[in-house]
Amino acid sequence: EVEHAPYRQHAALTMEGVHHTFDSLTAVRDVDLEVRPGEVVCLLGPSGCGKTTLLRIAAGLEVLQQGRVTLNGGEIAVPRGKHVPPEKRNVGLAFQDSALFPHLTVMENVTFGLKGQPQAQRRQRALSLLEQLGMAAYADSYPHMLSGGQQQRVALARALAPSPQLMLLDEPFSSLDARLRDRIRDDTLHVLKKVGAAALLVTHDPEEAMFMADRIALMRDGHVVQVGTPRELYCAPCDPFVVAFFGEVNELQGEVRNGRVMTPVGPVEAGWLPEGSQAQVMIRPEALRITEHFEPAPEHRHSHVVMSKLLGRSSLLHICAHGEDGSEAHLHARVPGVFLPAEGQRVDIHLDLSQVFVFPSALA
Ligand code: ATP
């Protein structure tokens, strides 16, 4: 085991150089990914970026075409060679429409995968999981008697019952309404952490990924753009796609002068970009701190409110920002609570630079 010497434990799952095509379409491009023991990793990305294909390769539902896949240090798939079938991989699968067996009760569904154990032990294991997921009262019900959310909980319990080393979850909460989804996410995370199962979870919802994940792998066009903790991706995004994926963002262009880019809301550091080059400045709406300005009008035109809307927990303001150098930009600001300055109200804008990102301009 020399090659793994620095690690005390093997990764639950490794994928190295995985590449997958469907006819002429490349669905997965040269992906390296690791899920450590007990870790929840979310595959996040827009529709069609290859998340499900990658998960199916890990599950053994797709035959590996290129690369290498290991589970707990053991090779389970090599191209044109070894292919351990899904049922032999000791992985728990919970997909979007995880069909329960309609003619079996909830209890029978959950104990289904626990072959070779005494009946009492199987029931006890199933009951404990059903309890943790708030479904113990339905042990004798049939799937058609349950709501969609309840069925998903049972599917999750069924996948967890054999104590798989790795859970593979594909959009397991997507068919639930918003309120139920929050609760089931909570319960699922709680159970995963309690049983110490590693998990790879597919979602296209950034907030779900940030809530569930220890680490997120953000995908685009078949490849992984950035892997890191939710905080790393949100606060240190490696490119404009990563910034934009986590929500609406204001985009400005400017020239790098004296290591900075001037914007109508103030200077932004850009010292690592070549002097004189064009930069793309991305400003999250929450980076704009707005205060009302009641002093007499100064010489230059002042920033003002174009529109303000209360959205509940926050207000959205459209601002026409005027720089001291005469530059102008239309920006969206998101401010907490009820803050509804009138249309035309003059405002001062303070920039929270931790939510401002600068990249070389794609237009240059
Ligand atoms: P979504 O969030 O919409 O499910 P995804 O990120 O999971 O998308 P995949 O389902 O992995 O993406 O699909 C990646 C690409 O591969 C898509 O362009 C899809 O159309 C294509 N694809 C997936 N499965 C097949 C298949 N069996 N045959 C042909 N093309 C496929």
Secondary structure: elements and pairs:
Blueprint (H helix, E strand, L loop, with lengths): L12 E10 L2 E11 L4 E5 L6 H9 L6 E6 L2 E4 L13 E5 L10 H6 L7 H14 L15 H13 L5 E5 L7 H18 L2 E6 L2 H7 L2 E6 L2 E6 L1 H6 L4 H6 L4 E8 L2 E4 L2 E4 L8 E6 L4 E5 L11 E7 L3 E9 L5 E9 L10 E5 L4 E5 L4
Parallel strand pairs: 3-8, 3-9, 6-7, 7-8
Antiparallel strand pairs: 1-2, 1-4, 4-5, 9-10, 11-12, 11-14, 12-13, 14-20, 15-19, 16-17, 17-18
Structural overview:
The protein is an alpha+beta fold. The protein has 2 domains: 2-243, 3-Layer(aba) Sandwich (Rossmann fold), CATH 3.40.50.300; 248-360, Nucleic acid-binding proteins (OB fold (Dihydrolipoamide Acetyltransferase, E2P), Beta Barrel), CATH 2.40.50. It has 8 helices and 20 strands. The protein has helices at 51-59, 106-111, 119-132, 148-160, 178-195, 206-212, 230-235, 240-245, and strands spanning 13-22, 25-35, 40-44, 66-71, 74-77, 91-95, 166-170, 198-203, 215-220, 223-228, 250-257, 260-263, 266-269, 278-283, 288-292, 304-310, 314-322, 328-336, 347-351, 356-360. The strands form 5 sheets. The protein has a 6-stranded mixed β-sheet, with helices on both faces. The radius of gyration is 25 Å and the shape is elongated. It starts with 12 loop residues before the first strand and ends with a strand. Adenosine-5'-triphosphate binds at residues 22, 25, 27, 45, 47-53, 204. Adenosine-5'-triphosphate is lined by residues 22, 25, 27, 45, 47-53, 204.
| Rg calculated over all Cα atoms | 25 Å
- Which CATH architecture of the largest domain is right? 3-Layer(aba) Sandwich
Q: What is the share of helical residues?
A: 10-25%
- Structural category: alpha+beta
The name CATH uses for the topology of the largest domain is: Rossmann fold
Oligomer: single chain
**Count of DSSP helices?**
8
- H/E element order: EEEHEEEHHHEHEHEEHHEEEEEEEEEE
The overall pLDDT, averaged over residues, is 91
Name of the top-level CATH class of the largest domain: Alpha Beta
Q: Report on the biggest sheet.
A: 6 strands, mixed
Low-pLDDT residue intervals, each spanning 5 or more residues: none
User: What proportion strand?
Assistant: 25-35%
The CATH superfamily name of the largest domain is: P-loop containing nucleotide triphosphate hydrolases
